[in-house]
Design a protein that fits this description.
With about 280 residues, the chain is an alpha/beta fold. About 40% of the residues lie in helices and about 15% in strands. Helix 6 packs across helix 8. Bound molecules: 6-hydroxymethylpterin-diphosphate.
Length: about 280
Amino acid sequence: MIWRCRDVAYDLTDRVLVMGILNVTPDSFSDGGRWLDPAAAIARAHALLGEGADLLDVGAESTRPGAAAVPADEQWRRLAPVLDHLRAERPDAVISVDTRDAEVAERALDAGARVVNDVSALADPRMAAVVARAGAGLVLMHMRGTPETMQHDTRYADVVAEVVAHLGERQAAAEAAGVDRACLALDPGIGFGKSAEGSLTLLARIDELTRAGLPVLVGASRKSFLARLTGHDGPPDARVAASLAAATIAVLGGATILRVHDVAATVDAVRVARATRSAR
Ligand code: HH2
């Protein structure tokens, strides 16, 4: 299985990618404000790459429950110095931009990004064309509503069936707009309009998403459903062990891209999970 992101083609037949999270935001749920200063963000990017991140997901808009949209200009003001530095210092590093805005995606692709991570799965009508033109990788994530409204109703008749159907429809829309199937990855959107039980069910049945034959990305890192399970209601960075358990389960279920805050620890967990999968 190949995932094509411009000039980079990942063979995910026997490989799991670790995507390190870099939130250049004042308000992200886990690390808000820590990397808003460009110098701190750039240092963090180098650290994540040093820990073994295969790619970096750089975002300038928190999508935690209840968060309001950040205007494209403000997103770009936060992102530009970080992307410019990375392009100059680490042109080999694969950068994903976490945005719902085609304008931000376009600017980031012009600045060397190779992936667009769109948690709205093409809500912006220009997004597919922007991605297609660049031949970039595209992550299509399931979310019901917007970050502002998504937790209002988290009931589903069958959460897995709804997510699979929605992502299938979004995949078809992306392809119809010219995005190469080899560039697509699917994501169930853990915590996006889901109850804790819904997130757990999606993780438990992640193999049902892999049946589309596309790479599956899982973003469970430090999310609140893990705190519900462990009973620890401390800060999100106290959820590392629980996140590693979730990462391991995702890999055993066939996920091939993990979006995480704790890269070094996840790289080790992935090695064990992958070896176990191969030893079956
Ligand atoms: N989760 C978050 C943000 N972007 N993208 C994908 N594809 N999948 C996810 O699960 C996902 C995502 C939320 O996590 P984080 O970036 O740490 O927080 P915030 O949205 O508050 O910045």
